[in-house]
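Hey,

Quick one before I head out. I ran the complex with protoporphyrin IX containing FE overnight. Inputs first:
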Amino acid sequence: NKPFGRCPWNWPVLGMLPGVVMRLHRAYDSIVEVFENSNLTFQFKGPWFTGIDILGTVDPANINYMMSSNFSNYYKGPEFHEIFESFGDGIINTDYELWRQWRKASQSIFHQQSYQTFSTTITKKEKMVVELQDVFLRFMFDTTFMLITGSDLGSVSIELPEVEFATAFDDVGEAIFYRHITPRFLWKLQKWIGIGAEKKMMKADATLTRVCNKHISATREEVRSQRNTHNSNGEDHEVLLTSFIKLDTTKYDLLNPGDNKFLQDFTVNFMAAGRDSTAVALTWFFWNLSENPNVLTKIHQEINSTNLPRTGSDHQDTLLYLNKLVYLHAVLSESMRLYPPIPFERKSPIKPDVLPSGHKVESNINIMISIYAMGRMKAVWGEDARDFKPERWITETGGLRHEPAYKFLSFNAGPRSCIGKNLAINLMKTVIVEILQNYEIKVVNGQKIEAELGLILRMKHGLQVTINKKCSSLV
Ligand code: HEM
């Protein structure tokens, strides 16, 4: 490695900071380059006074080891819990037995209900220019909140109002990302003084508590009076909050549905998990379609040759229909391989260990997995790793190719993999079919498309598109 080579040089005192600053304007490409040139694992050294020392890896063998085969030695840890403070003691932010109980309870609730399909209603205007990422973020915000509480926050209505609850999530996300890149003493000091991102986070936390409490009290009241706690689409399943309020605590002694804070942690964690990830996945999907018109043609062909379920058909018919859309599934996977909505993941060893790549790790060090870089490694995906090729997901017999989760990490791997994966895929397919059947979407020319640095892979400048209602469906 040379001072101005492909990987950042480790300078005395400053560590690799100068190299990072020089690469900041093209951060994601640089991360890919660094891993490509360091045999998939890289030791990052921050300036000595910051204590930032991170082992980065995109080696599938290491990932399989940490996420699955030696899962019990790799946790999120106390530093993660501190940084993700607003998530309280929810599923995303806990380890050990408390996480296990969250996971079991959430899975049994997800499985017993018919949460796997959605009906959608999308805008009724005939022609307009919109910022698609903003629309999807709003749509997913309302959809996830509806799934949890049964109430509609109305953030996707035609006037696109500012919803304080949504803004609070954005502020929390920004502050958490800031905490990742700032020495601990500094963000702690800012929190203590009450300035910058920390000040915003405190205000946002207060909003989350207030709004959650309002909905929790209302839902408790409905459960107490045995009123209908079904969602407002008129579908006959309980909303998630109701299921958690009624949780059988004899099975889960660490979960406490009698406590509003427990239900707030549930709401905040599930909103955070479901909303942005699905919205940005949809945005990158439509951008990839605009760059690959032949792929769009093939999706149209698949939709046209597959019989749509009749209006009012049951949930099983809808699932069968969605499962038949194999090529669409391949395009979604390819889009999330190159643009994973959650671009990185972190782990810490509980006890010292040696990774399959030979790297020694001390307890509680930070191990960062770049999901973004993983999807682009030639060593993992072959020479055409950077090309958008949905066909790589299709088998010789026309089925969907299964790739192990430690290679296609967009939904995480092992016991902590995404609980909402099927729900998200079915929802995205439903939205895409609905849009492609009724609208023509054209990306406005001349926009700068780049990924924003953050917890979620948002498009930094959004995605401006023109939406045209197709003549055949004009009413
Ligand atoms: C395209 C959409 C989605 C993607 C790419 C995605 C991806 C992920 C990833 C990478 C994780 C691991 C995060 C971590 O370890 O901190 C995760 C966890 C999780 N996801 Fe998703 N997710 C999506 C949609 C959803 C939806 C719609 C829900 C439910 C409403 C959901 C619920 C969860 C939950 C509860 C966890 C925590 C699991 C645990 O720690 O045991 N996700 N997801």
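The CA atoms of residues 146 and 152 lie 6 Å apart.

Talk tomorrow,
K.
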